[in-house]
Design goal:
The structure holds three protein chains of three kinds. Chain B is mostly helical. In chain B, about 70% of the residues lie in helices and about 0% in strands. In chain B, strand 1 and strand 2 form a beta hairpin. Chain C is α/β, with parallel strands linked by helices. Chain C folds into two domains: about 210 residues, P-loop containing nucleotide triphosphate hydrolases (Rossmann fold); about 60 residues, Alpha-Beta Plaits (2-Layer Sandwich), CATH 3.30.70. A six-stranded mixed sheet of chain C has the order 6-7-8-3-9-10, with helices on both faces. In chain C, strands 2-1-4-5 form a four-stranded antiparallel sheet, with helices on one face. A four-stranded antiparallel sheet of chain C has the order 12-13-11-14, covered by helices on one side. Chain C is elongated. The chains are: A mainly alpha, B mainly alpha, C alpha/beta. The interface between A and C is medium-sized, with 27 and 28 residues.
């Protein structure tokens, strides 16, 4: 405990930690301001997409007319032309509803359009939107209508839950790992580089205590950073954003079918995934620090291990492998949104086991570790 | 200045971390060459493939003949006769191909592909089928045809496979059935272990954000390890009759020199590996460059490699400039390199958001995917024709210069407040 | 036994840097470790505190094996200032040591006053000067009132006042029974601290007690050397000529007083008398420079 408070102080009162946290806060504020500024962009984007769809439909109409001129009795072409004209009408109706309060009607119309597009493809027509994407959009629209939740833009939302999710997505996917490596990357290797480890070695302390305190302080630091970042984002959204709802649906694939979880669940599961991964990252970092005793090289080795582990396991089939793969959670979005062969929590045991193993190994190494040279 | 560069080079060469990374780099290139060599369809492989086809067809013919003899099939039957005829003709074709493979005669083989599709493509152009997004789109078929013509006219050994399934373009967005996509993507990834083409493989693999990160690590503590602001060894340099700005510029020039040497070494090694284990390759090998309004052209692979290397070099200069700026501000290797990498990722992520806006081509982060810039894939996907090699070179150079100005401002401020 | 180092050998990259060191200290005292750069002083201290592995030999401090970390309740080691954490304050460091060694934190105030670092105790160490860091290091090693105190170059960066202060603290500690082994290049300061000097040379130890060495040798400068020589020869008093006008006399059967009386009786004026006690510097020169010039 005495060591823990000392270790914690070293990290938390360092200029680096405060400086980085400040930078992150600035970044979050910047994103929020961007979202505010880009509200108009949303409408423009929607209009542009609509124009593109219309253009594609008109092109198709041209083709059908040309075909029918050659063979006016061609039933397939007649059918396609019929569906196509109906689709064009739908698009015009949608266009009138953009930027109005009639969002439900707009979503329903969009879905009708997508349904027609599907039958159009089935009847032999061509589409610029892949079928999978059509299914995704239809399901999402339907879900929003069913739950009576106003749609939010994927990137430029200022609603508290959606903005929080946006920041959290950045945090859990690489953000937290990079931040933690920056904050605690030199907590052990730096001691060897600066020789300050000799101060610890000349105190009546058990060596395993030193590693455990460092480990615990790294985790507390992570929790503090996480709470700080999410708290700041929450306050920003609360005071300057819209209310929104934490029941907002997030679409994911499970065994090939489309399913939904709420923003709240997404955030909780995402945090669970990244927090366990961070434990692993800390232990990997400790082990390499003891092996290499140089910060930059340690950081490089940790990143290569994480990337390599992720890539290597990613190449292997998932399913059963997910139970054995401690690096699967390095990019939690994949784990959460693509649960086709493995469930989101499936890699927890592997992560914990490896982390424990590495921590034990680090403690063993630290026992005989010296500041040579 | 030369003194500083020499001194820095010596320090670098003595650093274990630097040496380990270099050895890692070397091992990577060697093992990647082995990988590419294994995946290359060499003439022998092509001959073997054809021979296997021939024996398969031969056994089919035998089966039919046995069945006829046994009275199960009627030799006069149209289908049976057709089958026999078809297989026999095919065997002949395959044998001819083997002959061409053996003699290295690529023109007739390319001609066959060209003749097979020329009329079809002309028809599609006539019907103006450009707006279809289903594979194979018109651009795909047209560009494949032109690619083969380029190869034939310039008498270049094609990289196999060369059939219909080995060519996709950005315009192919819809695949029917959807599984086809993965198959086509895999099939159209062609490997060649010739010197030039292997260099292209290496560049494709390395010239991206991860490659940039590798170089950043290589030089990550160049400024900070001297203990900026503390009683570090930078005091040694600063107590010599050398201006501080000269010191930083000296370090920067050293990094540029080493980077250049590394890139040059990589190219040289790739060429040598190719030349020894395969052949040097064709400087003129065509690389598809997208144009506006469904147009396209081809570029020499040699020129393409040169442009890629130049653009990536500027990307690195830009990265180093960020690193130097952070090194001067934070004075810590870990923080400066971490922040640089974070800025790069955030920059790339955020700039993807603002692609709609007018300033997108002026954002340096867009140019990190060097290959996509030069082939105009970026211009096509972001629907902005301002993205180009030249634009990238200018934007990256100007951004780096601006960063240096900021760094200069920071050092002046630091001096004033220290 | 306070310190028992037996046949200690340490290699660094195949080179033997400690060549079988033997030290036995049975009673509390101050011992100075003196030697040129690279002679192995710091390596010896680091080996003793288990900061470096030992290749051969054994070390016991206060009757315990040197690898026993509980030793550090009673053993302190003043190292170079790189062990300090720049982001923490001096107070943080002292508090940590109190917690690690179960010392009452009220000791902090006492030791801070004693060392004289009150004004900058709450400042971050990165802003300390060399001397301030040395003060902090001193406070950190004496706060536990150790039985054995090892010090590596404690005088680095100290101004004369601080150096005197440190000397006084060490002498006080020695008085209450602390054994101190101190390595230093400041030979004058060592002379003031102790007479027991361990000279180190190429990884080997040369123990010297300067107490008594040349203690009763005097150089006497006189007005009339020729007459003095005559008189001393006549009386049979042993002497030698150091230089012109200077006689070297060593107290043996004849006391210094008898020697002076003899000269006075013969009206030979004594200009000065200098005791030739050998200091650390002189002995250091004899040991190292003589060889260097060979």
């Amino acid at each position: 405990m005495k060591l823990l408070s000392f270790e914690l102080k070293k990290i938390i009162f360092s200029r680096k930690f405060l400086f980085l946290l400040l930078l992150v806060f600035i970044g979050i504020s910047f994103l929020f301001i961007r979202n505010l500024v880009f509200q108009e962009q949303i409408v423009k984007e929607e209009q542009k997409e609509l124009e593109e769809l219309l253009q594609a439909n008109y092109n198709n109409a041209g083709l059908h007319i040309a075909e029918l001129e050659v063979d006016p009795e061609n039933e397939e072409q007649q059918k396609l032309q019929r569906i196509n004209s109906s689709m064009i009408n739908k698009l015009y109706e949608v266009r009138n509803l953009i930027n109005t309060d009639e969002w439900k009607q707009q979503l329903n119309l969009e879905n009708q359009y997508y349904n027609e597009l599907t039958s159009y493809v089935e009847a032999g027509g061509e589409t610029t939107i892949p079928i999978k994407e059509i299914n995704y959009r239809t399901a999402m629209n339907q879900k929003l209508v069913d739950e009576d939740i106003m749609p939010q833009h994927d990137r430029y939302s200022t609603a508290l839950p959606n903005f929080l999710k946006q920041i959290l997505t950045l945090f859990i996917n690489a953000g937290a790992i990079i931040l933690m490596l920056l904050i605690i990357g030199d907590t052990l290797s730096g001691e060897f580089e600066n020789r300050s480890v000799n101060l610890l070695f000349t105190q009546p302390l058990e060596k395993h205590q030193i590693i455990i305190s460092k480990f615990a302080s790294a985790i507390i630091t992570y929790l503090l950073a996480m709470v700080g970042i999410l708290g700041f984002t929450f306050l920003l959204g609360l005071f300057f954003g819209e209310k929104g709802t934490f029941a907002y649906p997030v679409l994911f694939e499970k065994n090939g079918a489309i399913q939904f979880l709420t923003v709240k669940t997404y955030m909780l599961q995402g945090l669970a995934l990244i927090s366990t991964t961070i434990i692993l990252v800390i232990t990997i970092c400790f082990l390499f620090s003891l092996l290499i005793k140089q910060t930059l090289a340690t950081l490089f080795a940790v990143l290569v291990t994480l990337l390599g582990g992720f890539a290597l396991w990613w190449l292997l089939p998932s399913g059963v492998m997910a139970w054995l793969n401690p690096f699967r959670q390095v990019y939690p979005d994949n784990v959460l949104l693509l649960q086709n062969e493995a469930l989101w929590y499936q890699s927890f045991p592997a992560v914990f086991l490896l982390a424990l193993l590495l921590l034990g190994w680090s403690m063993h190494m630290f026992k005989s570790s010296k500041q040579e040279g | 200045m030369l003194t500083i560069i020499r001194f820095e080079l010596k320090k670098m060469a003595r650093s274990t971390f630097f040496r380990v990374l270099l050895i890692g780099c070397l091992l990577f290139i060697l093992s990647y060459y082995i990988y590419v060599h294994i995946h290359t369809l060499h003439t022998d492989d092509l001959i073997l493939e054809n021979e296997a086809d021939i024996s398969r067809m031969q056994s089919e013919i035998n089966n039919i003949e046995v069945a006829i003899e046994a009275g199960e099939l009627d030799a006069e039957d149209k289908e049976t006769a057709g089958n026999l005829e078809f297989n026999k003709e095919d065997i002949e074709v395959k044998q001819q191909e083997i002959e061409h493979f053996r003699n290295g005669e690529w023109t007739p083989l390319l001609n066959k592909e060209i003749e097979q599709y020329e009329q079809h493509v002309d028809n599609r152009i006539f019907r103006d089928e450009y707006y279809s997004a289903a594979w194979p789109t018109l651009v795909t078929e047209e560009s494949r045809l032109e690619y083969h013509k380029w190869l034939r006219d310039k008498d270049i050994t094609p990289v196999y496979p060369i059939d219909l399934f080995s060519w996709v373009t950005l315009y192919d967005q819809v695949y029917e059935p959807p599984d086809m996509e993965a198959f086509l993507k895999e099939f159209s990834t062609k490997y060649s272990s010739t010197g030039i083409y292997f260099t292209n493989h290496v560049f494709t693999f390395v010239f991206n954000i991860l490659g940039a990160c590798f170089f950043l690590f290589l030089f990550g503590d160049m400024v900070t390890k001297e203990g900026l602001g503390k009683n570090g060894s930078i005091q040694l340099l600063r107590t010599q009759p050398i201006r501080r700005s000269k010191l930083f510029i000296g370090k920067f020039l050293t990094i540029l020199l080493v980077t250049f040497l590394l890139l040059f070494g990589t190219v040289l090694l790739s060429f040598i590996l190719g030349a020894i284990f395969d052949r040097f390759g064709d400087w003129d090998y065509p690389v598809l460059i997208y144009g506006e309004e469904f147009s396209f052209s081809f570029m020499n692979m040699g020129t393409f490699l040169l442009q890629s290397a130049s653009l990536f070099f500027l990307v690195l200069i830009f990265c180093y400039s960020i690193l130097f700026l952070f090194s001067i501000i934070t004075k810590k290797a870990l923080v400066s390199i971490g922040l640089t990498i974070a800025i790069l990722f955030a920059g790339i992520g955020l700039s993807a958001d603002s692609v709609m806006s007018m300033i997108a081509p002026y954002i340096p982060f867009h140019y990190f995917s060097v290959r996509e810039v030069i082939t105009n894939e970026l211009a096509l996907t972001l629907e902005n024709s301002s993205f180009s090699f030249n634009q990238g070179m200018i934007v990256l150079a100007v951004s780096s210069l601006l960063l240096w100005l900021v760094a200069y401002g920071v050092t002046i401020l630091q001096k004033r407040f220290s | 036994m306070i310190v028992n180092v037996a046949n200690l050998k340490k290699r660094y990259k195949k080179q033997l840097v400690l060549k079988g060191i033997n030290i036995k200290i049975e009673s509390p005292q101050i011992i100075a470790l003196v030697g040129p750069n690279g002679s192995g002083k710091t390596t010896l201290l680091n080996c003793m505190t288990n900061l470096l592995t030992v290749d051969e030999g054994s070390i016991e401090l206060l009757g315990k094996n040197h690898k026993d970390s509980s030793l550090f309740y009673d053993v302190s080691y003043l190292q170079d200032n790189r062990i300090l954490y720049g982001d923490l304050t001096g107070y943080d460091h002292l508090k940590f040591i109190c917690q690690a060694q179960h010392i009452d934190q009220s000791k902090i105030k006492e030791v801070v006053e004693r060392v004289g670092m009150g004004s900058y105790l709450k400042k971050r160490v990165r802003n300390y000067s060399l001397g301030m860091k040395q003060h902090l290091l001193l406070a950190m090693v004496i706060i536990n009132e150790p039985k054995l105190l090892l010090m590596d170059e404690p005088l680095n960066g100290l101004d004369p006042t601080s150096a005197i202060n440190m000397r006084n603290i060490l002498l006080e500690l020695a008085e209450i029974g602390t054994t101190i082994i101190v390595s230093s290049h400041n030979l004058d300061e060592i002379d003031r601290l102790t007479n027991t000097i361990y000279f180190m040379k190429d990884g080997a130890l040369l123990k010297e007690s300067l107490t008594g060495l040349h203690l009763n040798q005097y150089e006497v400068s006189v007005s009339n050397a020729d007459k003095a020589v005559e008189v001393l020869n006549a009386k049979g008093i042993p002497y030698s000529l150091a230089e012109k006008g200077v006689l070297r006399f060593e107290e043996t059967d004849v006391s210094l007083q008898q020697f002076i009386d003899c000269l006075n009786e013969n009206q030979i004026e004594i200009i000065s008398i200098e005791n030739q006690k050998v200091g650390a510097e002189k002995r250091y020169r004899e040991l190292f420079e003589g060889e260097a010039s060979v």
